[in-house]
Amino acid sequence: xxxxxxxxxxxxxxxASMPDxxxxxxxxxxxxxxxxxxxxxxxVQTPNAHSITTVDKKFLIKELFVGFPxxxxxxxxxxxxxxxxxxxxxxxxxxxxxQKSDLGEAYKDQLIVMLKVDEKxxxxxxxxxxxxxxxxxxxxxxxxxxxxxxNF
Length: 152
What we know:
The protein is an alpha/beta fold. It contains three helices and six strands, in the order H-E-E-E-E-H-E-H-E. It has helices at 18-32, 92-102, 123-135; strands at 42-43, 61-69, 79-82, 85-87, 112-117, 140-143. Strands 1, 2, 3, 4, 5 and 6 form a six-stranded mixed β-sheet that branches. The longest helix has 15 residues, at 18-32. The radius of gyration is 27 Å and the shape is elongated.
């Protein structure tokens, strides 16, 4: 009996369609991805500062904008905006809880609210915002101003 020697065959994977697959995946992710446009809906002119401090942990800062709407159809009274959404005075507590949930468990009590307020907004509204922030245990509040302090 004769033993036949097996012929060695190699399995080859065709890579001819690889560029098509890569292009298809690239196109899919480009079409399905959303681009976050940080288009503010408020006109906000920040006032000059007497002194400036900086914050080391930038991820703790969440911004609230208070100003007059750019679109006249939204009215002429000052409005509050956070994360490109309108926030009423009654919804500030809910906004604070959402911002705290975005932070890690260790940093929930260290939330810093940065208020970017137009210089022509009435201080009564700012006081009301501060009271709502206090009620919801957001006690660290900063005000955004122009970069250079004005000499008085």
